[in-house]
Design a protein that fits this description.
Blueprint lengths: L1 H12 L9 H23 L3 H25 L15 H17 L1 H20 L5 H18 L6 E7 L4 E7 L2
Antiparallel strand pairs: 1-2
């Protein structure tokens, strides 16, 4: 399973040593692959079969949506190398891992992955491979996919809530 996930990531992102032009771009390439792999490894370490299934569904939906949009929209990259700029697949992949950790295990475990995913997005703009809106779209696709497919670990749910009379955080546990 891990090998299949890694091969699909590498093929999707078209990562080759010759394609990277700077340390920033190279690190972004690495993070786009390692964040979702580390996330999946976390579900294995926790013996979280339900989490594995949820991650797989969410990740698959994220990448499929990004690829379909790339071929449907055909936006030219800032460096003019091709017309597959929108949305950023690297950013979608990285945020798929970070967003899963947040939704499934909680925000305190997702802070570092979010920082690394944000750096991945930055690296894509910095290397002139994507516009800022491509990166935002990739992150949004991943977050929406996680919102739809992923449930909190062991029935714990923490969510922001707001009404006319109350604003705060709702914590619930299903027994």
């Amino acid at each position: 399973m891990k090998k299949l996930l890694a091969l699909s990531l590498i093929s999707l992102l078209n990562l080759t040593p010759l394609s990277a032009k700077s340390n920033t771009e190279t690190l972004g390439d690495i993070l786009a692959v390692t964040l979702p792999l580390a996330t999946y490894e976390t579900t294995i370490y926790n013996q979280d079969k339900e989490g594995q299934s949820q991650f797989y569904k969410s990740y698959r939906a994220t990448i499929a949506t990004a690829v379909v949009l790339k071929y449907a929209i055909k936006e030219e990259r800032p460096d003019k190398s091709n017309n597959r700029s929108f949305p950023s697949g690297h950013t979608a992949s990285a945020f798929a891992g970070a967003g899963f950790i947040h939704k499934h295990y909680g925000l305190k475990y997702a802070i570092a992955p979010y920082i690394l995913a944000t750096y991945t997005g930055y690296s894509r703009v910095h290397s002139n491979k994507h516009h800022t809106h491509d990166v935002i779209a990739g992150a949004t696709i991943a977050m929406l996919s996680n919102w739809y497919f992923v449930k909190p670990y062991k029935n714990l749910k923490i969510s922001p809530t707001a009404t006319n009379e109350f604003q705060g955080v709702k914590v619930s546990y299903k027994f």
